[in-house]
Design a protein that fits this description.
79% helix
Length: 246
């Protein structure tokens, strides 16, 4: 993939947003997915984005290493693995156009789920989630992150339902995605999503992701809990529409 200057500018901006999403406003994470899907083929963008995300995850975990709620993570990991395996199967059989359509369809579902959450039982506080809620969240997050690196909205729904404080929210998200993204690497490599060329592009974007992560760490200090939750949901909704029409 040979990117033009403006495509590199957008890729750098998207990488900064990834960093901010990892340590600041979680809902921002889907917008750069849309940017990358728009400036390069959908399948290739999945591999490039994955490696950029991993460095942002490392920074986030370094910053919030003591703030994760591991009881939530241990419940989510097993069904997430199932979702990743199913997502790998789907990616191995879909061409670029089909992947783009699939990404769009996933985001439509997430928008619907968002409305249901605000009006349905997920709007209530959940101290110990039901097994079906954990299972659906894990499988959905695993499948969506494998296909599109776009599991952020699902995790936002789940963790907001758990009523986690904003710092614990970000720390739990950071550990979840670092673990999951590292787990995805061999699957992505076997599908040809990660190559020497895509790795070189990802490495060139790492400084932007690191800068965004550091900025997000500063930003979160000045966002109150309610504003944090509203921003996460609003940005996820807007970005989901952007990805659908990318």
């Amino acid at each position: 993939m040979d990117l033009t200057l403006w495509q590199w500018v957008l890729a750098g901006l998207g990488s900064v947003m990834f960093g901010i999403a990892k340590t600041g406003v979680a809902g921002l994470g889907i917008l750069p997915v849309a940017i990358f899907a728009a400036i390069m083929p959908a399948r290739e963008s999945v591999g490039v984005v994955l490696v950029v995300l991993i460095i942002a995850d490392i920074v986030a975990v370094t910053v919030y290493r003591r703030d994760a709620d591991w009881s939530q993570l241990l419940r989510l990991f097993p069904p997430t693995v199932v979702g990743i395996v199913v997502g790998t199967f789907a990616l191995g059989r879909f061409d670029d156009d089909a992947v783009r359509t699939l990404i769009g369809a996933i985001l439509i579902v997430l928008v619907i789920v968002r409305v249901v959450r605000d009006r349905g039982p997920l709007a209530r506080e959940v101290e110990r989630p039901r097994w079906w809620f954990v299972g659906l969240t894990g499988v959905g997050a695993g499948f969506t992150t494998m296909v599109a690196n776009a599991a952020g909205p699902i995790m936002i729904l789940y963790l907001l339902a758990m009523r986690l404080p904003k710092v614990t929210f970000v720390g739990t998200t950071a550990w979840f995605f670092l673990t999951v993204n590292l787990f995805k690497v061999p699957f992505s490599y076997s599908l040809g999503l990660i190559s020497a060329a895509s790795l070189a592009q990802s490495l060139a974007l790492w400084p932007f992701a690191i800068g965004g992560a550091l900025f997000g760490r500063w930003l979160i200090r000045y966002i109150d809990q309610r504003l944090f939750e509203n921003l996460a949901l609003a940005l996820t909704f807007v970005a989901s529409l952007g990805l659908l029409f990318a």
